[in-house]
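tool_call: predict_structure(chain=1)
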Amino acid sequence: MSKNDEKNTENIKLPFFGIPKIFPYVKQYRKQMLFMLIACFGTSLVDLVLPLFQKYAIQNFIQEESAKGVWIFAAAYLALILLQIICFMYWARVAWVCEMRIGRDLKRASFNHLQTLSFSYFNTNAVGYVHARVMSDTAMIAQILTWGLVDVVSWTLVYLIGACVVMLFLNVRLALIVIAVVPIVVLVSFLLNRRLMDANRKVREVNSVMTGKFNEGIVGAKTTKTLVIGDKTYNDFSAETKEMKRASIKAARFSALFISVSTFLCSFAVALVMWKGGNLTAESLMEVATLSAFVTYALNMVDPITELARTVSDLVGVKVNIERFTKLMNTEPDVKDTDEVIEKYGDSFEPKKENWEEIKGDIELCDVSFKYPDGNEYVLEHFNLKIPAGTNVAIVGETGAGKSTLVNLVCRFFEPTSGKILIDGRDYKERSQLWLHSNIGYVLQTPHLFSGTVRDNLKYSRLDATDEELYEALEAVSAREVVDRLDGRLDFNVGEGGDLLSVGEKQLISFARAILADPKIFILDEATSSIDTLTESLIQSAIEKLLSGRTSFMIAHRLSTIRKADIILVVRSGKIVESGTHEELFAKKGYYYSLYTRQYQDEASVEILGGNNK
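tool_result:
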């Protein structure tokens, strides 16, 4: 998907290298940018004046063989150099600060926007692709805005225009030789622009893939070692780095060709100026002082023209970064609140909790049909279900049957293709997503903990919770003893992703975290599948008490755990094929009966075999 997304950036038309798209993130720094331009402009003016000082020195001190006024001249020359140093230091300092701040703002904007996107975006875009948007692209954009663009506008162009004017004043014929180079450089830029942009786009595409491989290599390090596939992982990553090398070399060649041709043309123009000027001086048609100043201007123009060529090359490259950043920021979530809802209830970053109604937990699906955004087949069609507050709903089915679909709809991670879902009698689209999500406790099959302490992870559900309340939540799920065994207890650092804990320990802590929020709706997505049988038996009794009075959905793998559910929904091939209580479904001897008896037989076989082994 990410590769297709990269190709789709070609359809984005961004004039002026896409720079106007970034203006909203730069406007708050317009004063600093203005001072940068002034400082850089001052540096350029000094560069323009210094050759005239050279001309004056040759005429008045060398040709006249006099030292009269040399100290005043030296003082003025030194003052100009000091002014140039001050301007350059100020420009460099402000440019560095602006680069960091603009980069920070771009990263913050992209990261915050990611928080608003729906599940479907993360299902179809790799981690490396997203990471490259937030980190690499924003850094490149900030760098070119604060260094390259300001340098071109306030130094390169000012010096080129100013030098051309002065040279025309000194000698028109020689000036025209140098000036003739500029349109040729522009023509070369136009001819190479498309290929250079395609090459840079390819580099960014491969970089996204390589970043994804790098991320997978770190996250999956344990799996790599246990499967002994280090050589395969290494070879896969090496293949991507080789592709990155090829793409980077190709882009560098086009960039080097562009800069080399520009430098050659400038150097050739300088050579012609020196040859022609030398002849004019020999024929006494031009003063040596004037030729000296002219040659200095011509030589000094090599750097600005080369820098202009390099900056144009960089702008072509950064246009790809802006395309990618713009595409991310233009991505609309599949699920979003209306303006009216946001006005009343707020959004994820500025919630208006004073307007949030208390939730009871009545849920009703009215003629709901649903298919995934990237799918063609309906998963649910004209489905109706009424779930009174406090009802325990179990969802069962084989792996991959689509058990999470209904839960994702109820949680509003996705919205019905048609039909309505009512929460407490109102369409849940009439209230904010955050209002609903704040009242849902979700325990995943694969638990995720954030880097930090046990206390930090528990408090994610309630920032103002006391230690006493944290321990109460832990006790409720039989996790108190687990935490007490840890070195530091609540202050134990769980490591990145909770890797310093076992899967079962992480699950218990994530369970306690969900309970701490005291949600009205509970979602247990095979939440006990990672816990051993002994711990599961302890936690089941706690679950019954905790779910009492709460609407709950249990996606179950072990069917023995959901026998007391108020209603069981049986999912097969993405569709709900049966519903009812355990007794009702068992009496029908249908698909649920088949699942239950087969699992019971499998578990009995394991116990018998285990007993024989003993």
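agent: The two ends are 51 Å apart (CA to CA). Proceeding to next step.
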